[in-house]
């Protein structure tokens, strides 16, 4: 019995480690921090704000920063509710081409309680393109993201 417990523990740690490595490999981080240092909760509050280093938290290998201790604690209780979809990469690019494209952290949309980010420059705003065909693009993005994280 003791042997089985040890074996299960080793296997669990290995699987968890693989998940962390997969996340680190595929999530968009800037200088090791997700969302370009923006506080994930502030997107849901209607105005993205930069987080602070003193309110950092690592969720399965991905570092997030928060603007307050309160936001940090809220995130800890339900991280999957606040983490960006598709590892923080452009939702439109994920849906249209299955590619990981960097984003403007202030160009976003909340859909069914989930955070989606978009590429945006002076000449291109993929959020506008996403809005034209959101249902199809989201379905394709979900499939494409699954393929990417399984590699």
From TrEMBL:
Domain of life per record: Bacteria
Protein name as it appears in the record: YHS domain-containing (Seleno)protein
Organism (species): Arcicella lustrica
Classification lineage: Bacteria, Pseudomonadati, Bacteroidota, Cytophagia, Cytophagales
